[in-house]
Amino acid sequence: MEVRGVTWGPKRAPAILHDISFTLSEGEVLAVCGANGAGKSSLLRLLYRHQAPLSGSVIVEGRDLWLRPAREAARIVAAVLQEQPTDFALTCREIVALGRLPHRQGMGPGARDKAVTDAALIRMDLGHLADRRFGTLSGGERQRVMVARALAQDPRILVLDEPTNHLDIRHQLELLRLLRGLGLAVVCTLHDLTLAADFADRVLILDQGRVIADAPPEEALTEATIAQAFRVATRIDRSGGSPHFSFQLDL
Q1: pTM for the complete prediction?
Q2: Which of 79, 5, 13, 8 is closest to 39 using CA atoms?
């Protein structure tokens, strides 16, 4: 994926994103970080075709994503969003199977669709919940179902908005390890800077809709950059295996 100078904002309102550019390679994990309102979710919406840029382009495998048919784009890019519907009268298996819709040939799911659905359920440790109603699950369980649906979509690019929300510590670590092992291009927003430092190949930091850093974690997550993005005084202890971040209101 190559994002070339994209700008976006709602109609008759100031722009939220300003001249954003970056590239994403196969197998690379990019964490997007920044304060609330920095434009993280708005940027992701451009990448999974929810909203078109006002200017610039999103190029996927050499073609503009917005010039592809929707069904073709859905075979390439899958998304997991923060919002989780709770009123689905569907089972976990039925929701995960929705990820196969862009690939279906004919009226109903084929043998491969069923096999991919089952594999996604097992991969996200949901086999024992496959026939449970989605609305009866906990927030963390619902989040894992939505990730499984994205995996069933068999994409080449996976876009996730705060995927660790609602997950306990173990499932956070398991999910991020899984994402690293998929071999896909992955873009995800993360509030936890330690998780971003540990699992991302690159960290892109937004401040008021502009990129202020795009580099490996040890170069992007500096005290000065974090202070600019989050308006807090920051200290980083890199003496251990993972960086330890401490923050203070700079009054």
Answers
A1: 0.91
A2: 8
